[in-house]
Task: inverse folding
């Protein structure tokens, strides 16, 4: 099992909208994430817009590829892109900064 942590930056003026969008994540998006092998997925948002995401999966590359192959992911990423800073034309799932795990207390 792999633990995955990533960072993105939400635009300060879009914080409330971003939070609201996650109160009602599309059911088909949730189903796609589960089917692709994403488990224990959480997002944490700081007041300055720093977004920290965490999830677990058996195979990160496979989980990302499975999500990338879905129509719902393309639609969700297009909907979410305007909320973020510094994507440079990439989708949010492509522009996230992946962090290296250095310690885990089981």
Result:
């Amino acid at each position: 099992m792999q633990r995955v942590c990533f960072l993105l930056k939400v635009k300060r003026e879009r914080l409330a909208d971003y939070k609201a969008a996650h109160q009602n994540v599309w059911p088909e998006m949730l189903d796609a994430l589960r089917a692709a092998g994403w488990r224990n997925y959480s997002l944490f948002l700081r007041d300055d817009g720093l977004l920290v995401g965490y999830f677990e999966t058996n195979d990160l590359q496979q989980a990302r590829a499975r999500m990338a192959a879905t129509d719902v992911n393309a639609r969700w990423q297009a909907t979410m892109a305007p909320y973020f800073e510094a994507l440079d034309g990439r989708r949010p799932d492509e522009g996230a900064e992946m962090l290296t795990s250095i310690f885990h207390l089981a």
Summary: The domain at 2-98 is CATH 3.30.70.100 (Alpha-Beta Plaits). The radius of gyration is 14 Å.
